[in-house]
Amino acid sequence: MLLPFFQDEFLEAGCDEAGRGCLAGPVFAAAVILPKNFHHELLNDSKQIDEANRYRLRQEIEATALAFAVAMVDHEEIDRINILNASFLAMHRAIDKLHIKAEFLIIDGNRFKPYPNIKHECIVKGDGKYFSIAAASILAKTYRDDFMAQLHAEYPVYQWKQNKGYPTSVHRQAVMEIGISPYHRKSFKITDPQLSIF
């Protein structure tokens, strides 16, 4: 059972990102402030939910949230500042865009670059523990998937509509046979054994 809030003294936003382990495309992040009484039986870590339900949940989250925002850092910025810093920057950009200012942040993961003048708590696997982080994971994932589907139309050979830029065997094979696209992250090694296959 997910929890509504980490703390109840300050107005809290949950933050998460999507696309960190991809070979191509941007990293997306979302920040979500939910109402105090929010509860949803289906909402969970986006990786635990099928695609159709992710999009249904996105509609419900956007209709119910007190505030939400989605932001991205593109592949060129990722190559310049590295993927970890790009993930933090995407979250900062999402927080910047919230029309209600958050007073406390809960971040999925174990590291975060502090956002000016807002306290935060990092929570490992937080998208499976707190509704607001789960909501942020749904928004980041679905908005990034939409973006990758648009890029797929330009470069269908990499099958981004299916793999979303993750290092599947089909994606890797296409890169090895054809080379990289303008949207690939040049700082990522296509044959890096540390990149898991999804």
UniProtKB/TrEMBL annotation:
Domain of life: Bacteria
Co-factor requirement: Mn(2+); Mg(2+)
GO cellular component entries: cytoplasm; ribonuclease H2 complex
Cofactor binding description: Manganese or magnesium. Binds 1 divalent metal ion per monomer in the absence of substrate. May bind a second metal ion after substrate binding.
EC category: hydrolase
Assigned EC number: 3.1.26.4
Reaction equations catalysed: Endonucleolytic cleavage to 5'-phosphomonoester
Function of the protein: Endonuclease that specifically degrades the RNA of RNA-DNA hybrids.
Protein name, entry field: Ribonuclease HII
Species of the source: Pelobium manganitolerans
